Inverse folding.
């Protein structure tokens, strides 16, 4: 659930701004699916990945369920079975298809899902025309719906990559963009000090935020230093070539079991091709860009690498304190770039500045995903949005090259189980 002043969401009487934002978000989702074949949109190669067709439908079901049904007079649901097919995890709203079975939905066909989206969009336009007569709760849930769809846009980028990577043909999602060739070496690493003391973290600004960011509170940290940039592929390759995946001394017990069980020897999507390391990307199989940030690694791999370097991962408190201290701004690579891969720092990047805090890759922290002080779940179905996941997961900070730029902020708390690798996850060292 989200919390924010309604006045910052939809200014009264400004239908155009609300409708324009709604249409832009909805069109972005469809644009991400446009390069796909219909056959691509029903594949679910693992539990964490949802078929693109399901994402298209689920985000539409969200607006229908939480906005059209309660607020548009006389609204009738588009199809009586869609709630069962496209509910994600809202127990309050009844039974639903098993998450692992989303890939069995060859029906309804993709064209029906696009018709569903068009119908709901038309109905939402009518609803937004009534916004001056609607309660503040509508405005809150409307904004949450937009933010929710942006979350699914990031999932679409990462799920599409995983789906295409499982094809023996290694197909490209889109042609490789024309970019300036990276430098031969990444800018030098430096360590930036952050002073000890009591610092306030959590959402303190105006505007949208999720409820897991709420509850600004003071926290004490000792002096620490943060690396000025993300760990690169070349630096991670040093760990691999030094036998990092073969030496249990660097690994947490569960992590070492994962290495043994799954045969990990490199980040996800890395393959040896004609004697050199390549990566599967949205542009097909390409040589590893050694100066770019390493990504698609688990928390266990990030932690093992940090130990091998004689360092550690920052806590989420340290990360946010440092992001505020260094005045992090969303100037990195985001979804809007359409590059869908973390980009290297230019050689001219200053060693005295902290780079890549927002964008490029989600940064694993050594913090469990727990509630902030005073956290209370909201009532009703939307209370299931965040709170029930606050166990057995680790916090990541900073956003990635697949995150919409308007969606990220320094207080944003992402969370995944420590073994997950299909997201754009990376490493920043602390000591």
């Amino acid at each position: 659930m989200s919390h924010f002043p309604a006045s910052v969401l939809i200014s009264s009487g400004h239908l155009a701004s609300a409708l324009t934002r709604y249409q832009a978000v909805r069109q972005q989702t469809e644009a991400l699916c446009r390069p796909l074949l219909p056959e691509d949109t029903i594949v679910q190669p693992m539990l964490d990945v949802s078929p693109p067709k399901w994402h298209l439908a689920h985000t539409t079901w969200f607006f229908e369920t939480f906005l059209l049904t309660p607020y548009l007079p006389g609204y009738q649901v588009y199809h009586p079975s869609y709630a069962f097919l496209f509910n994600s995890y809202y127990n309050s709203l009844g039974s639903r298809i098993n998450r692992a079975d989303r890939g069995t939905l060859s029906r309804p066909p993709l064209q029906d899902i696009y018709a569903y989206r068009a119908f709901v969009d038309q109905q939402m336009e009518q609803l937004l025309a009534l916004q001056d007569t609607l309660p503040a709760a509508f405005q809150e849930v409307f904004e949450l719906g937009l933010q929710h769809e942006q979350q699914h846009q990031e999932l679409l980028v990462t799920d599409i990559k995983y789906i295409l990577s499982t094809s023996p043909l290694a197909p490209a999602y889109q042609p490789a963009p024309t970019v300036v060739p990276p430098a031969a070496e990444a800018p030098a690493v430096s360590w930036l000090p952050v002073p000890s003391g009591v610092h306030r973290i959590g959402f303190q600004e105006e505007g949208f935020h999720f409820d897991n960011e709420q509850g600004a509170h003071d926290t004490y940290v000792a002096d620490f230093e943060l690396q000025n940039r993300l760990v690169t592929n070349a630096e991670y390759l040093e760990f691999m070539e030094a036998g990092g995946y073969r030496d249990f001394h660097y690994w947490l017990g569960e992590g070492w079991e994962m290495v043994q069980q799954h045969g990990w020897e490199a980040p996800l999507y890395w393959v040896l091709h004609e004697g050199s390391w390549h990566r599967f990307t949205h542009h097909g199989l390409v040589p590893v860009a050694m100066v770019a940030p390493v990504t698609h690694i688990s928390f266990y791999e990030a932690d093992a690498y940090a130990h091998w370097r004689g360092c550690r991962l920052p806590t989420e408190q340290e990360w946010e304190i440092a992001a505020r201290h260094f005045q992090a701004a969303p100037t990195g690579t985001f979804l809007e770039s359409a590059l869908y891969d973390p980009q290297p720092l230019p050689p001219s990047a200053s060693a005295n500045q902290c780079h890549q805090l927002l964008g490029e890759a989600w940064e694993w922290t050594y913090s469990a995903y727990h509630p902030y002080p005073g956290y209370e779940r909201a009532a009703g179905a939307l209370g299931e949005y965040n709170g029930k996941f606050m166990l057995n997961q680790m916090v990541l900070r900073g956003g990635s090259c697949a995150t919409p730029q308007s969606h990220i902020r320094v207080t944003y708390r992402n969370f995944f189980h420590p073994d997950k690798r299909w997201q754009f996850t990376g490493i920043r060292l602390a000591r």
